[in-house]
Amino acid sequence: MTNDLALTITGNLTADPELNHSRGGTPVAAVIVATTPRHYDRAADIWADEETIYLPCTAWRHTAQNIAASLRKGDRVLVRGKLRQHTYTTDTGSRSTFELDIDDIGTSLRHRTAHTGPGRQHDADTTPSPPARS
Fold first, then answer.
1. pLDDT in tens for each of the 134 residues of the chain?
2. Pairing state of beta strands 18-21 and 38-41?
3. What Cα–Cα distance (Å) separates residue 2 from each residue in 58, 60, 70?
4. What is the pTM of this model?
5. Which of 34, 39, 92, 115 is deepest in the core (most CB within 10 A)?
């Protein structure tokens, strides 16, 4: 059992996904998800926004390729992954950043619909089929 912190967030992509490759050729996609927590202020009888959180997220291999092919800036997504902390030292002291290693990601259907059908990719296998023999 590991002590990984599993996290699920809902938010919007701040830019188109960036697809790159590691030195070994493994696809890696980077996105930033922005989410703004809200709470109900009973005294004012309104919903109030809190400070927006910008969380860098990284995906690897087929997930990275699928993200780059499917998602765009502004898309509302649900992201599940492991929260990672990176600590480094600067002239002013020690700093920490957080990043989410994506296990799964999908489009939120809360405010939109999605359609699947013929011609749509349904799995991660993007290898073309061999030609049929006659």
1. 567 889 999 999 999 999 999 999 999 999 999 999 999 999 999 999 999 999 999 999 999 999 999 999 999 999 999 999 999 999 999 999 999 999 999 999 888 887 765 555 544 444 444 555 54
2. unpaired
3. 20, 20, 31
4. 0.78
5. 34
Helix (H, G, I), strand (E, B) or coil at 104: strand
Q: Encoding tokens for residue 108?
A: 């939120």
Please give the structure tokens belonging to residue 93: 């002291």
Tokens of 42: 């009973």
Under a CB-based contact definition with an 8 Å cutoff, are residues 59 and 45 in contact? no
Residue 129's Cα: distance from chain center in Å? 29
